[in-house]
Amino acid sequence: MKLFEIQQLLGASQIWGQHCLDREVATACGADLMSDVLAFTKDGALLLTGLTNPQVIRTADVGGLTAIVFVRGKTPSPEAAEMAKSLDIPLFSTPCTLFEACGILFSQGLKPCPPREGNSVDA
Amino acid sequence: MPEEPGLILEFPLEHYRFEIAGEASSKIKQVVRQLGVNAQTARRISVCAYEAELNAIIHAYGGFMRVRVLPDRTELEVTDAGPGIPDIEAAMREGFSTAPDNIREMGFGAGMGLPNMARSADEFEIRSSPENGTWIRMLVRH
Ligand SMILES: Nc1ncnc2c1ncn2[C@@H]1O[C@H](COP(=O)(O)OP(=O)(O)OP(=O)(O)O)[C@@H](O)[C@H]1O
Ligand SMILES: [Mg+2]
Fold first, then answer.
1. pLDDT digits (tens, 9 = 90+) for A27-59
2. Strands across the sheet with B7-14, in order?
3. How far apart are CA A118 and CA A110, in angstroms?
4. CA–CA separation, B117 and B110 (whole Å)
5. Which of A5, A15, A51, B132 stands 20 to 30 A from B8 (CA)?
């Protein structure tokens, strides 16, 4: 699904990244805990979150995420928005709740992140 | 024996400096990508760095990270002089966290950091004591 379709489906405004609307995402993750995001996403995923601090942007960069959608009409702090620009991570804001936003995208065919890979830690 | 050549990156990690937390990890990712490491492997390296960096910043009053990038692997060593981890086995479990509420509000404290490191690295070693703080060594093969 392309970012511009996601933007339309969620009635989202774009905070930054007009030139990125053609980028494609295959999977998405809704979370407010950053280590969960890193545990459960793969490169290229979309993040939906209610957190707006710079750590969210940093986490997206570390995790190689394609874009971030802030839910419930939230917008990032100016530092966070600046960081997103410098790291080339497009940002959106939707009036939907996290639950609604995830539901809409899921019902339109966007997939959850697949089961985790890598070394297991069932020690 | 002379050390194998490699690119060395060193980062001091400062207690509660959340404005710059993760900068080291972004930098490391950029460097290994430029050296030709593929995106998935670069992500694993950067997740290892990020989780270790944040733990030092949050739980251990800061610390130090040293990264060595070799042609076939990246090695990360993170040390701190913090309070140590009393029960490493418990701390390694998914969901175990002692992060206080103010840290959780920032998006940390899932108790996934150490498990993420162990899963992302090909080799993971941890030592910790109240006297010497915490030492973590990770190796990711390219
Ligand atoms: N460097 C450290 N010094 C002292 N204690 C640590 C250190 N690293 C981890 N711990 C302890 O181990 C626990 C688990 O660490 P882990 O990184 O898995 O989760 P977390 O940091 O609490 O949350 P998350 O990483 O998911 O944001 C921490 O809550 C803390 O009690
Ligand atoms: Mg942690």
1. 999 999 999 999 999 899 999 999 999 999 999
2. B7-14, B62-69, B73-80, B133-141, B123-129
3. 23
4. 14
5. B132
* B133 assigned to some structural domain: yes
B71, amino acid identity: P
Give the domains, in start order, of chain A with CATH numbers: 3-110 (3.40.1390.20)
Per the document, the length of chain A is 123
B123 CA to centre of ligand 2 in angstroms: 18
ipTM of the complex: 0.91
| Ligand 1 atom with minimal separation from the A35 CA | 26
Which has the closest alpha carbon to B57: B88, B95, B34, B23? B23
Q: Is residue B42 part of a domain?
A: yes
Q: For residue B2, is it within any domain? A: no
Distance of residue B39 Cα from the nearest chain A Cα, in angstroms: 8
Structural domain includes residue B126? yes
What CATH number is given to the structural domain containing B22?
3.30.565.10
**Measured between alpha carbons, how far is B26 from A5 in angstroms, rounded to an integer?**
29
List the single residue in A with minimal CA-CA distance to B104: A33
R_g of chain A computed on alpha carbons? 13
- Cβ–Cβ contacts within 10 Å for residue A9, how many? 17
CA B128 to ligand 1 center in whole angstroms: 12
User: What are B90-140's pLDDT values in tens digits?
Assistant: 999 999 999 999 999 999 999 999 999 999 999 999 999 999 999 999 999
Number of domains in chain B: 1
